[in-house]
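Lay summary. Proteins are chains of building blocks that fold into shapes, and those shapes determine what they do. In this project we predict the shape from the chain. Here is one chain we studied, written as its sequence of building blocks.
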Amino acid sequence: MLQDLQPKALWSNFYSLTQIPRPSGKKKEISEFLANYGRSLGLETITDEIGNVIIRKPAYPGYENHPGVILQGHMDMVPQKNSDVVFDFQKDPIRAYVEENNEWVTADGTTLGADNGIGVATAMAILADKNVVHPPLEAFFTVDEETGMYGAFDLKGGLLQGKYLLNLDSETEGELYVGCAGGVDTTAVFDYQPVEVEQGDIALKISLTGCKGGHSGCDIHLQRANAIKLLFRFLKDAVANYEARLACVEGGSLRNAIPREAFAVVTIPAEGKDDFLELVDEYEDLFIREYDRVEDNLHLVAEQIDCPDTELPEDVQDFLIHAVTLCPHGVYRMIPEMPDIVETSNNLAMIKTEDGKVSVYCLTRSSVESRKEELKQIIHSAFALAGADVQFSGDYPGWKPNFKSNLLAVTKDIYQKEFGSSPRVVTIHAGLECGIIGRNYPGMEMISFGPTIEHPHSPDERVNIATVQKMYQYTLAILKAL
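And here is the predicted shape, written in a compact code that computers can read:
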């Protein structure tokens, strides 16, 4: 059914992308697919050292002397699935389908990859259509955007030739993005020597599941539950008042996705099992009440399992629980001049136990560099005081708005002419590759837009069909005007 949607070429390309496993890190097959696509059209095609692909299409007759335009998107997707879905992102095609109301395309229990597959499919369709009126054109597809924007970071100067860049990686139709937040990753590691479990103790696996999760930038203001934070609220009480000891803990799966699930194995005295299970039920009821109207499928359950041989030392356990409890998550500050836009936030993204280490991962975002540094240092203090080794990585810049840009003026005017209304000009509290590309290509004018995509980075991801067609029409009109 996807291939019957309009524009037909765009949706056919998107269907092809769903058949190629392309989670971040698995780039060879998708990079080769796009490069072969460019060559099959007889177009100049370049693959750089990291796997980015650039395809050049000569200008439509009469547009040879117009400034060049770059259509830019990333080829990887976020791999998220519901825990009850059997799916391997390394080899399985996405099971995409049209919802019954014929308004949305979604996937069966996994992320869809509309972020940024729709943008890539748009550029592919334009490359193939000989009737599109456009200046000298480049399609620029980057690798591994979702895990750290590595494709943009490793792009060398001098490869791109265009003056204008249209980033096709935004997720609300009718909005033009002219700026974005920068970000930095934090990793806090607690080293420990395992200790033996007390004789006579039993083990319980605690599972907090069913949270909606979502994009840690675009959805951070929605006040959705962070499964790790909720689990640690429970653990703090369980350890302090029910003689629980922590054996291991896992939660979250991606730095840029709000954690939907978290799990812990604890040991308790056998005679305390009934009281402990009552505590689990009490906290489940508490969390459901607190997140009424926000989360509709949240569950906290406990099941007895085989007892592990070892657990965390009590002091490391306590320091870990205090630090995670103290670590901020969610919106830290809104933009004073744009009070409906997040300025600074933190996503407490992942936690895992492995080989005598508990590692905690955060992604901090801000459109103000000094605020990003401030929140980064708060997180550092929370974990450093608890004895963790704290390291920062993946620091990337924000994209500073240029409200005097000729490209912005043209795209605003085109939107008004095509659709009879003015687009909303905003900045986005998420990472876009524009700021990074701009460091190597100073003076390049950029804008970002896209269709309406709901719940990216979660298994609820879906893209609105009508807005995809509208986005395509808009892109063609911009190219003709430039």
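What the prediction tells us: The two ends are 34 Å apart (CA to CA).
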